[in-house]
Amino acid sequence: MLILLEDTLPTPLGMLRIITDEQYRLRAIDWEDHDARLDKLLSQHYARTEFRRTASNNPGGMCHKLADYFAGNTAIINDLPTATEGTPFQREVWAALRTIPCGQVMHYGELATRLGRPGAARAVGAANGANPISIVVPCHRVIGSSGTLTGYAGGVQRKEWLLRHEGFLLL
């Protein structure tokens, strides 16, 4: 059985739910006001795995590390360990997201091209939307081709705040 360790962290954007496995690899991060989305993603990603969520105090130091991110040490998320389920394509998109440098953005089409799938911008968007480890797997760094802040599961206002926090200057 997969044991998922869970804690919450107060942030400038609201309470953040942090979930790791027993090896302290991030399995999910989401805003507490989006618990229904988090429950759905966990059920989808671990449909074939029996799992149990249990409360834990700062599992693997993840709460402290993410608090450091919100305090301004944005580079701390670059090396945080993650593990999740998903289709091979989703995992490929999520790995590519981690290569977008802090303070920079990429369009969905650019990301699709980088993955060798030009024309798959919508599929990249769908994989981006299914990302269970927001912030650390920085789906907020992907924007629309016109430069608009399209969709973010936590809300566009949070996406804008995260981009500004990381040094991306919005027009």
Automatic annotation (TrEMBL):
Lipid biosynthesis recorded as keyword: no
Catalytically driven reaction(s): a 6-O-methyl-2'-deoxyguanosine in DNA + L-cysteinyl-[protein] = S-methyl-L-cysteinyl-[protein] + a 2'-deoxyguanosine in DNA; a 4-O-methyl-thymidine in DNA + L-cysteinyl-[protein] = a thymidine in DNA + S-methyl-L-cysteinyl-[protein]
Gene Ontology molecular-function annotations: methylated-DNA-[protein]-cysteine S-methyltransferase activity
Pfam families: DNA_binding_1 (PF01035), Methyltransf_1N (PF02870)
EC number: 2.1.1.63
Segments forming domain Methylguanine DNA methyltransferase ribonuclease-like: 7-83
GO CC entries: cytoplasm
UniProt cross-references to HAMAP family, sorted A to Z: OGT
Family: Belongs to the MGMT family.
Protein name: Methylated-DNA--protein-cysteine methyltransferase
Source species of the chain: Shimwellia blattae (strain ATCC 29907 / DSM 4481 / JCM 1650 / NBRC 105725 / CDC 9005-74) (Escherichia blattae)
